[in-house]
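Appendix C reproduces, verbatim, an entry submitted by the partner laboratory led by Prof. M.T., so that reviewers can inspect both the input and the predicted structure.
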Amino acid sequence: MTSSRIPGFHLLSAQKRLELLSLGQETEKNLKSGGIDLSVSDVMVENAIGVFGLPLGVATNFIVDGQEHLVPMAIEEPSVIAAASHAAKLARDGGGFKSEVTRSIMTGQIQVTGVKDTASARKSVEAKKEEIILKAHKAMPRHVARGGSVSDFLVREFPEQGWLVIHLGIDCLDAMGANLVNTVCESVAPLINDAASGQNGLKILTNLCDNRMAQSTCRIPIESLAHRGEPEAVASAVVQASEFAMVDPYRASTHNKGIFNGIDAVLIAAGNDWRGVSAGAHAFAARGGSYKPLSAWTQQEGSLVGKIEMPLAAATVGGALPVHPLARDCQRLMNVQSAKQLAAVVVSVGLASNLAALLALSTEGIQRGHMQLHARKVAHLEDLFGKEG
């Protein structure tokens, strides 16, 4: 792929778009069928009776860290893909999106209950740190051989409840890591319980993966906003809308929903755990005791500058990917080679979706573009069932 900038892409028929992308016969077949049939569905979930589809579109115009990306998005809501594509086009004027993504560290929690003296038990567990880490590594030998390891060890006290909670940070490389982390937690729990002289509690990862962060920024020349009205006024309105979200959790909730219009749609298309990412991000947004926006917009030196930061466990191996060919096709179309690169694209789409929503809210209102596209569905229903249907 040479460029994600494809003028007039939205004007083509669905078949013409497929032909233009030159994805190959097998991928075209997967796209037309939804990627799986009942037999695959039966392998993936219990009590399978069918396959439930979502529309799959492509967001254009994305540049992330200097690389072009066409971004597949699975979503039922009209205007989201068009809005993200438009915002990405604006971001191109400032060089696209720039990301920072940390290592893929997921945290497992081992809870010990019935601890009479948490301070003494904590010292006993910390004295066993090296032995616990060695046992953790023995529980994941293949992963360690690929470069994964326990990177963090933390013991937390809950004296009123009589608990210790031990955090193990595990670098999951290109996997999301839930099964891996849970296996390790269950493996080391008996050793930890003995050291703390306590009883078995919960042993599971946390989705608040605040050691696995993704950040994206973009810088849009204010003159690029002229099509929305007086550029300075448009930029000021976006900043004011961002400030509204910062001080009011009611607004922050909808602000973040706009971000997840983009993020969830990409994660679903890429066969990733969008529920886990959502849970972690919303917990992160509330970490200070009041729910806050995940992104912020400011004016700096003639530009509208956006920044988003959130926990984001994206994966390019494991999960649904081994059995869902269309999820693999979507990742190939996206042109991502690692979990860190996928996270960079996903968080950038979230920022683009956020910008699109704030621009609409700050100028003509959210309903104008949304309802224009919604009218296509209404017309289709009338064709199927008649105006009285």
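The chain has two domains: 55-101+214-384, 105-206. Additional entries are available on request from the coordinating office.
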